[in-house]
Amino acid sequence: MGDLYRLDGGGDTLVLQQTAGAPRLIYWGEPLTHDLAGAAALAERVTRGTIDGGEVFDLFPEAGRGFTGQPAFECHRDSGDFVTQLEPLSAVQDGQRVVFRLADPKAGVEVAVTVELDQQSGVASFRSRILNRGPTPLHLDWAAGALPLAFDDLLLFDGRWAREFKTSRQRLPAGMLVRENRTGRTSHHSPPFMVAGEPGFSERNGETLGLHFAWSGNHRLLVERMRDGRLQAQAGEFFWPGELTLGEGEAYETPILYAARSSTGTNGLTSRFHPFVRTRILSDRLAGKPRPVNFDTWEAVYFRHDLAELKALADLAAEIGAERFVLDDGWFKGRPNDTAGLGDWTPDPAKYPDGLTPLVEHVQSLGLAFGLWVEPEMANADSDLLRRRPDWILGVAGRKQPLGRNQYVLDLTRPEVFENIFEQIHALLAGNAISYLKWDMNRDLTHPASGGRPAAHRQTLAVYALIDRVRAAHPGVEIEDCSSGGGRADFEMLKRTDRVWLSDCNDPIERQAMQKAFTIFFPPEVMGAHVAATADHTTGRRASMDFRAMTALFGHMGIEADVRAFTDSERAALKRWIGVYKTHRALIHSGRLSRQPVSDPAALAFMIAGDTEALASYAQLQVRANVSPDPLRLKGLEPDATYRILMLAPAASPTASDPVLVRGEAVQASGQAIARTGLPLPPLRPGSVALFHLTRMDQDP
Ligand code: DGJ
Questions:
Q1: C-alpha count within 13 angstroms, C-beta hemisphere, residue 5
Q2: What pLDDT is recorded for position 701?
């Protein structure tokens, strides 16, 4: 039996065993007191009728060692060599992190597999580094993080533009399920996340494992039931043919596969991922920093920028309570619509004859911060930049490439292109009082080639480097991560951004469902959520101001509408809701979010609980199932504590026979009673929300 390595974090123990090859995961769960050897003995499996001695099943399975499933690693040399048989060199543990070094001198390959368990949250990270020790080029075909799965009930994520973070459930009786993304960005249709759990797991119950592959380029995520019945999950970069070749002494490092485990369904995963994101991904940079109410101009004016009109919008936005004015697409040189202008990051002289200063100063005089939309990775053929340097794009010389939104992707792997774009953004930020960038990215990488070779991998790293450089030069500037809505939402982008624009769909019915899925991994303070027009611009569906505002309240709230078109009473209602957001944002952006069980399939409920208070919402999306709705049984409060409960919305019912709480009076009850008996709900119409605030009272002596 090989050596055992034990990692502890977040109330979990994870045990790894050194094998004749890579380490294998033999235990992950509640803390083990001492019994590591027992766990190792139990991790053995019966094998018959396959490879003598059974197939390896570790964190880096190789075909060369007799693994007939999808190996974690595939490579070849021009000589035809493709077999690797890695053997352990060393394993070094440092705190809650172990680095296993493996080598195959014959193949000229060295690998380091690093496993770390975050001490506070219990989120694990898996990453490998592959080094070419041989004298000839080593072509990498696949290099992934691989994990054994205990269960095959899968919660999968897909979506499209304006309908992000859609989920589906699926079992896997045999074979392989692959989710692939070749769009060159994290993607709408195949975000690299997944939950695998015991059959029937729910928000509150069941063993679950949540996987998040932190990479903003191409990827493959797969689950395989191997021929002997065991299950594995893998996540790795998808490489175009010949894309990743290592010269002698060169190394490739896989993106990080983050994973968390829970015995209490997806809420248990959230209770690990949110603190992990707050401290480790965001490095605490949003902690205690109120998320200002954004006013975004996009759906208010689109490309029609008129200084007087924008000033008037800013006036109204300030009056309603906005704290940051974000000038969206349309402000820069030669940008009448989406066919021209990208690449030239100076104000359009026709729309802004005196530059941005008059608008910035006006916005600032109202007490608002100023933010600006940019799409630095792109250029239109109709731009000074590409007229001068038509060769600065990703693509294959002599080939016409299909465009997306009429634009090309700039080849940021070329130092001169990178420098040019950095200098343009740097000049913008240095020359104007801009404290926020909405960093957009609106097309797929269809011909991702540079210098005649595939370059999606290098381009993704260059994008990271560009954002990092902008941040380093302007540490006070916050950045919003946008990609036609939520097309580039992942932890690696979030390391260098402060907000994710979840979707171009602001319809609260759609948003409630997206927010449910998104918040499994991401905390509310990074979730851009706007109150838009009464009739949503992408669905055409109308929603009340209360419903729109209460949905946006649970994220980083903003406004994105022509507020002049709102009636006085709509503006007053929005102002009230922004007041509610400001009152509660410290709680919303630091508390423990849970998705609450509801019996009505046409409803969704959330709670965010802090130590002394909580906020809970119950959204009725369609016609309610029953005359008397089941009460909202809020799980997750302190059972013995007493709470003062107040219904903040809808307006109190005047009907004398309605429950006291629904009549707008405060009620006191224990966490236990709230969880078991539940909060009585008002008779909600479709497209409305009930909102409750709970204050923890001092406990009886
Ligand atoms: C796509 C984004 O998702 C929108 O919010 C908006 O910024 C447009 N791009 C502007 O072109």
A1: 23
A2: 42
Which of 342, 482, 483 best tests ligand 1's pocket when mutated (most atoms within 8 Å of CB)?
Answer: 482
In a domain, 325, yes or no: yes
What's the CATH code of the domain at 668? 2.60.40.1180
Q: Which residues does ligand 1 sit against, CB inside 6 Å?
A: 298, 328-329, 373, 440, 442, 482, 484-485, 501, 504
Q: Convert the pLDDT of each residue in 643-662 to its tens digit.
A: 999 999 999 999 999 999 99
Q: Exposed, middle or buried by CB within 10 Å (0-12, 13-18, 19+), for 574?
A: buried
Phi, psi of 449, rounded to the nearest 5 degrees: -120, 145
494, pLDDT greater than 50:
yes
Check whether residue 101 and residue 117 sit in a common domain.
Answer: yes
| 250 and 304 part of one domain | no
Residues 142 and 229 in one domain: yes
Measured between alpha carbons, how far is residue 110 from residues 16, 20, 61, 65, 682 in Å? 20, 15, 14, 15, 64
Backbone angles phi, psi at 675, to 5 degrees: -75, -35
Q: Are residues 585 and 464 in the same domain?
A: yes
- On whether both 553 and 681 belong to a single domain, the answer is no
Number of domains in the chain: 3
Residue nearest ligand 1's atom 6 by CA = 298
**Distant-in-sequence, close-in-space partners of 509: CB < 8 Å, separation ≥ 6:** 539, 541, 543, 621, 687
DSSP state of 264: B
